[in-house]
Amino acid sequence: MSDADLPDTDLTRESLLTLDDPRFTPDNVALVTGAASGIGRATAAGLAATGLTVVGADIDEDGLGGTADIVADVADEGAFHEAPTDLTDDEDVAAMVEAAAEAGQLRYVANIAGMQHISPISNFPMEQYDLLLDVMLRAPFLTARHAMPHIQNADDGAGAIGNMCSVHGHYATQDKAAYITAKHGLRGLTRSIAAEGEGSLRSFSVSVGYVLTPLMENQIADTAAERGISESEVVENVMLGQARTKEMMTPAQVANLFTFGFSSHGQHLNGGDMLWDGGYTTTYE
């Protein structure tokens, strides 16, 4: 598969969904983890483009600087604040949420930070298993634990927590046990937040297929090595083979789902999963 077959991943104002919403103002804050690249960067840019103040968290400080530059290009009103954060450090997570609360009225959280390790269960390094679960399941729980009181103490108690799930939160494939375990757990966390949100604090998850991100580019190489096939075969046969929509999603397209979910148009999206998977989990040959 050539570069010409891959979608354009440039983040522009035109690629991002902007909605008129009474709560999408600079006084209100969205916290986005994993904001230094990929879907997190796109979501931070997209939410800032709607007029929100965005606090972007990531362990990659240089990447956060790059996100700030993009926000400056696409956002007229929304601001972006960098929050260097190690999601495996409980004190860092607490400080991240406090930084978001100090930037304005914290209403929205997008738990997007993720990572991957490809290995069969029999050889899966436990330190990698623990790291993936810490970043993708424990950290979202702890972030919600700190953020929920701030959201509920808003003037109307309204807001939402969105969690980045995956088709791997619906089914399993080989050699990704930690990732799959974390994503299944995120759907349970999403429902738990909704159960305790009293209707005004909503929660939802977003499940997509393969998205053309830096993480995905690394995964293509890892999967090719693990299975002994070429990278083009990984994309065409492994990643897109089961899909009916024969194109990877872009980070902007995923970010737009978070924007919609956080908006008043998502009022009845509470505890549910936005499954935009191109037919991965709903069709078969």
Descriptive report:
The protein is α/β, with parallel strands linked by helices and 285 residues long. The protein has one domain (17-212, 250-276): 3-Layer(aba) Sandwich (Rossmann fold), CATH 3.40.50. The chain is built from eight helices and seven strands, in the order E-H-E-H-E-H-E-H-E-H-E-H-H-H-E. The chain has a seven-stranded parallel sheet, sandwiched between helices. Helix 3 (90-102) runs parallel beside helix 4 (126-152) and helix 6 (214-227) crosses helix 7 (231-239). The chain starts with 27 loop residues before the first strand and ends in a 9-residue tail after the last strand. The model has no long low-confidence stretch (mean pLDDT 92).
Give the helix/strand layout.
Blueprint lengths: L27 E6 L4 H12 L3 E6 L2 H14 L5 E5 L5 H13 L2 E7 L14 H27 L6 E6 L12 H20 L4 E8 L5 H14 L3 H9 L11 H12 L10 E4 L9
Parallel strand pairs: 1-2, 1-4, 2-3, 4-5, 5-6, 6-7
E-strand count: 7
What's the helix-strand series?
EHEHEHEHEHEHHHE
| Shape designation | globular
Largest sheet: 7 strands, parallel
CATH architecture: 3-Layer(aba) Sandwich
Q: Spans of 5+ residues with little confidence (pLDDT < 50)?
A: none
Query: Rg, please?
Result: 18 Å
Strand order of the largest sheet: 3-2-1-4-5-6-7
CATH C-level? Alpha Beta
Structural class: alpha/beta
Structurally, the number of domains stands at 1
Determine the mean pLDDT: 92
Cα distance spanning the termini? 23 Å
Q: What is the count of helical runs?
A: 8
Question: CATH homologous superfamily name?
Answer: NAD(P)-binding Rossmann-like Domain
